[in-house]
Amino acid sequence: MEEQNESTVIPPAPLVDSPVDGTPETVPGVEADLGKRIVAALIDVVVATAVAAAAGLIMSRLSYPAFAAYMLTRDSLPFLDGQSIGKKVMSTRAVSETGKSLSGDWNSGLIRNISMVIPFGSLVELIIMVVNKDKPSGLRRLGDQWGKTKVILVSK
């Protein structure tokens, strides 16, 4: 085992502003693994389906728009602190490449999730993540590349 030199300095995790109270919170730079991302996405599909079903009770033509609205905005919703419900459950968060929360960042949120509302888009994204999982760029699906985002682990 190699001894660590006393002069080796490990930089602290980057600080970002918490969208809830404005106090800094430490965001670990560790990217979420494929399993956590898949489970979070499945939870979000269940939530979006429930939202669509509720909207469909009001008017059947609202079902797909309600589903799409949740899927497109799920990472930018300020009342969820910039995490989708699935990401909250799995202790992950989508952030910009610099580590900034997507809370209220509608542009990045929409761009990163547009592929998820296109038929078979989520399947294509899954294939891309599986193919890229061992590459240095990490688990970056097309939406992450387009929106310049990544998904990281957060402490509860």
Question: How would you summarize the topology of this molecule?
Answer:
Elements (H helix, E strand, L loop, with lengths): L14 E3 L6 E3 L7 H25 L4 H11 L11 H5 L2 E5 L9 H8 L7 H12 L9 H6 L1 E5 L3
Antiparallel strand pairs: 1-2, 3-4
Overall tally of structural domains = 1
State Rg. Answer: 17 Å
Oligomer: single chain
Largest sheet: 2 strands, antiparallel
Structural class: mainly alpha
Q: Could you report the average pLDDT, rounded to the nearest whole number?
A: 83
Q: So what's the overall shape?
A: globular
- Poorly predicted segments: 1-26
Helix run count: 6
Strand content: 5-15%
Distance between the termini: 33 Å
Counted beta strands: 4
Which sequence of SSEs, written as H and E, runs from N to C?
EEHHHEHHHE
Strand order of the largest sheet: 1-2
Helix content: 40-55%
